[in-house]
Each structure stands twice: as C-alpha cells, then as structure tokens.
Amino acid sequence: MRLPYDEAGSGPALILVHAGVADRTMWREHLDPLAGAGYRVIALDLPGFGEAPVAPGPQAPWNDVLETMAGLGIEKAALVGNSFGGAVALRVAVVAPVAVSALVLISTPPPDLEPSAELRTAWDEEEAALERGEIEAAVQAVVEAWTLPEAEPELRERVAKMQRRALTVQTEAGEVAEAPDPLERDPGALAGADLPALVAVGERDMPDFRAGAERLARTLPRARHAVIPGAGHLAPLETPEEFRKLLLGFLKEPG
User: 39 with 122, same domain?
Assistant: First the structure.
C-alpha cells in the first residue's frame, strides 16, 4: 500500500517513521531543519495511523514502506524510526537490505522484548478501555503511559490527538491479521544487518527500552549506542533539538 507522506528538501533520502502512539505529524518540526541540512526528507503515516487506512490483508508495514519508497523513486534511504516505527525500520532493513543506507532507532523494542510489569500495565489499561468501547479512556491511558509526568500540556494533547485518530481508524477496521514477522522467522537476521546504525534511547524511558537499546546495539554489527539526556520514550517530541543534533551527527559520520 502506498502511504501518505510529507516531503521536504532534496539530496540523500531520509525516511522518518513515527511511533505507535503518533503519526507522521510528530516529525513536523524536523522536516525543514533536516531538509536544510541537505536531505530529501519523507515522513510517512503507517497503515492505520494519521491519514493512512488500515491496509488490506495481513499487516506488513515494512512492505508498505518499501512500496512507498519505490513509488517515490527512492532506491535507497536512511531510515529513522521511533518505537514501533523503529521496529518497522528494522524489518525493512532485514527484508530489503539494499534499500537501506543506515538505521536510526529511537527507543525501539528488540524482537525478544520481555515486557516489565510497568509496560504490561500500560498495554493492559489501553486494551481494557478499548474492549469497553471507550476510545477516550484508551487515549488517556496512552498519554499517561508514554509521556513524561512533567510534559507540557501541548505535547500531551498532541499525542492524544494523534492517538485518538489512530484508535478510531483501527477500531472501525476491526480485527486484522498480521503477516509473518521476518525477525521471528529468522532471529539471526539482525546480526547480519551490515549497515551503519545508531541505537538511541531516552535517559528517562522505561527500563525495558533502555535495556533493549543496549541489546540491539550489541546485536547489530555496525551499531553505536547513545542515551538522549532528559528524554523519555518520544525523544523527537520531547527533546527535538538534542535528537536532531544526534541524528545529523550520526548521518555525517563516515559510513
């Protein structure tokens, strides 16, 4: 499925893939600065988020990213993903390594993530609200779980708006099947992902994701690990300048 996108700039392609509690608008402050740094920047809506409907058939968002890249004439790109978006980017790199020049993974769960009690509670509260048909309660559970306690009201409302839209679209679509996960079929594929990678995590993210970032950085053969000071799970929204400085510094390193 071809995905909705925003685009800015020209130069090497840089694909931005949003978190599961967001959509492509989470990147809006980054488009112009990244374009100004010399990149063709594409921010996508994954299926079931933002303006993208739920894809027909088994869900394989990594294939939708590749199809969108092909439609835009992009043969190779650096992929930047936050959380779920990072998980999608990882799978793009595994199924089509020739299409990925570099990976930037922000608070991305490793394939074998064992959720902590805190993470299970966050998921359970959202799921329970959805089972009751209470989308607004689910949205508030998401905001409480995935933003920092002292987050500005504007940021919390921004996350709420993005998630409200996604949950509405996904609820209306009903049950969907998931395509086979390429990393479950081949758990050793990450160790063979021979490309530059930055694996970063917010200093104040959940322990699951901090430990997961360290594990991913050890597994990917050409990865380096970074901690973003002051950030939680959504560093591009919480600490945008620090995130962008880290990203551009990595992209300008020799491959």
Answer: no
What distances in angstroms separate CA 205 from CA 24, 81, 106, 107, 160, one per listed residue? Answer: 21, 16, 11, 8, 19
Tell me which of 135, 157, 173 is where a domain ends.
173
How far is residue 17's CA from residue 114's CA, in Å, rounded to a whole number? Answer: 23
The residue from 154, 173, 192 where one domain ends is 173
Tell me, what amino acid is at 242? E
Residues written for the chain: 255
Cβ neighbours for 27, distance < 8 A, ≥ 6 positions apart: 6, 16, 18, 43, 236
Residues 188 and 158 in one domain: no
- DSSP tag of 205: S
Taking only the tens of pLDDT, the chain with its 255 residues reads 999 999 999 999 999 999 999 999 999 999 999 999 999 999 999 999 999 999 988 999 999 999 999 999 999 999 999 999 999 999 999 999 999 999 999 999 999 888 888 889 999 999 999 999 999 999 999 999 999 999 999 999 999 999 999 999 999 988 889 999 999 888 789 999 999 999 999 999 999 999 999 999 999 999 999 999 999 999 999 999 999 999 999 999 876
Both 193 and 156 in one domain: the answer is no
Domain identity same for 96 and 189? yes
For residue 73 the two structure tokens come to 């004439």
The region, left, alpha or beta by phi > 0 then psi within -120 to 50, assigned to residue 37 is alpha
The whole domain housing 155 covers 117-173
pTM of the model: 0.96
Residues 6+ apart with CB under 8 A from 58: 176, 177, 178, 179
